[in-house]
Amino acid sequence: MTEATATIIDGKAFSERLREQVTIDVAALKAEHGITPGLAVVLVGEDPASEVYVRNKGVQSLAAGMHSETHRLPADASEADVLALVGRLNADPAIHGLLVQFPVPDHLSQARIVAAISPDKDVDGLTVTNAGRLASGLPALTSCTPVGCMMLLKDALGDLTGKHAVVIGRSNLMGKPMAQLLLAADCTVTIAHSRSRDLPALCRQADILVAAVGRAEMVRGDWIKPGAAVIDVGITRFPSRDPVRAAEGKTRLVGDVAFDEARAVAGWITPVPGGVGPMTIACLLLNTLTAARRLHGLEG
Ligand code: NAP
């Protein structure tokens, strides 16, 4: 039996404080400039996990005092229908943040849909313009989950200068922007992926280890450098352990990191759930507020 050493990074508590601050800033933007930030979410089809995410985004944006719209299209909607809706929302002055919930059904091109979103309203930070701006060190709307991970890391560790960060995963949504943000914070960054050789050895070099893969408990305790900060982004859903809840379709979430093993070695660690997850929507609200301010010329 190993003894737990890591400090648990409480993303839930941090996200609540962040949402409170966004709510205050939204109220100030309304009072001082008559601007109500507006978030539009487009959902195509009926993916159950996406339904939950979209519902939460609507509820939390309203709770922060924002204008909120959810646009639902049937699973067999044509790409022309989706692009036309995106075009209307791009042009709508009440909307400052616009996202299409992915994945979309297979007959639709994610790349063409992303390309249709106005970069000024791209609160998921997925457009080429925002990815390029991030990579060039210019102000950008940046993917919410990596932004949330950085906030947690800076809160836990303070200055990140010179630390070796290993990011497992290279998606446009998660791994790549995470690596860019760590680089911008003066970390030395390694990006690992499914073709990387000897992943455990790479991970053991990390002062900061970010796992964004989607393979339950892939990262074991002996992959972790003693004292490292471990940020577990991965989410895999399994049926609830309670048979009654499982029969109702209830699930439990498991991260990419074998938590009990990792906790005995790491210095800091995010749990799943309650770590990175709650930060994502809080950062979406922050991005929507930022987009509203920039669209009205109030922020560079
Ligand atoms: P993704 O697009 O599927 O990317 C997964 C990445 O993991 C890919 O780069 C892939 O490498 C890499 N990978 C797969 N198997 C691997 C292996 N055996 N060893 C090393 N790398 C491997 O997923 P994503 O959108 O980035 O999301 C990653 C995870 O984070 C998912 O579980 C997702 O649910 C979760 N997530 C959580 C939040 C949140 O709010 N908490 C937000 C976003 C995502 P290749 O590029 O070589 O294929």
Describe this structure in words.
- The chain has 300 residues and is an alpha/beta fold.
- It has 2 domains: 34-119, Leucine Dehydrogenase, chain A, domain 1 (Rossmann fold), CATH 3.40.50; 144-279, Rossmann fold, CATH 3.40.50.720.
- It is 42% helix and 16% strand.
- The chain is built from 11 helices and 11 strands.
- It has helices spanning 11-33, 48-63, 79-91, 110-116, 128-135, 144-157, 175-184, 199-203, 243-247, 259-263, 277-295, and strands at 7-8, 38-44, 67-73, 97-100, 164-168, 188-192, 208-211, 229-232, 236-239, 251-254, 268-269.
- It has a 6-stranded parallel beta sheet.
- Helix 2 links the parallel strand 2 and strand 3 (67-73).
- The longest helix is centred in the first third of the chain and has 23 residues, at 11-33.
- It is globular, with a radius of gyration of 19 Å.
- The N and C termini lie far apart (53 Å).
- The model has no long low-confidence stretch (mean pLDDT 97).
- The structure holds NADP nicotinamide-adenine-dinucleotide phosphate.
